[in-house]
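Posting for a labmate who doesn't have an account.
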Amino acid sequence: QVQLVESGGGLVQAGGSLRLSCAASGRTFSKYGLGWFRQAPGKEREFVAAIGWSGRSTYYADSVKDRFTISRDNAKNTVYLQMNSLKPEDTALYYCAKDLSPWRVEVTTDEGAYDSWGQGTQVTVSS
């Protein structure tokens, strides 16, 4: 079972940047796609970004496209989410998650397709 630990959250002013990291345990990290999701108070968890096992495929929610960038370093068992031009509506608890299927050809935005989740890291954007 892969364990995921997020870090890098914090308080930032609107227009600022943060980089989230998600470190994974286990030797099978490179076989799986990874995703970032977020949950704001009173709202359901939503998809943010995903990256395929090789790093060549990425996909973003419309709300973060052109502002956020997902990347991975398989040598470090880590996935990143670079967040620029942050807005107050980006305030949420951010989770990383591992795809349950290895070698998936296309990345997935389906929450049900992810089987390991981190504990989350809080991002708060002030106006």
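Reply:
Got it, the structure tokens are right above this. The first strand starts at residue 4 and ends at 7.
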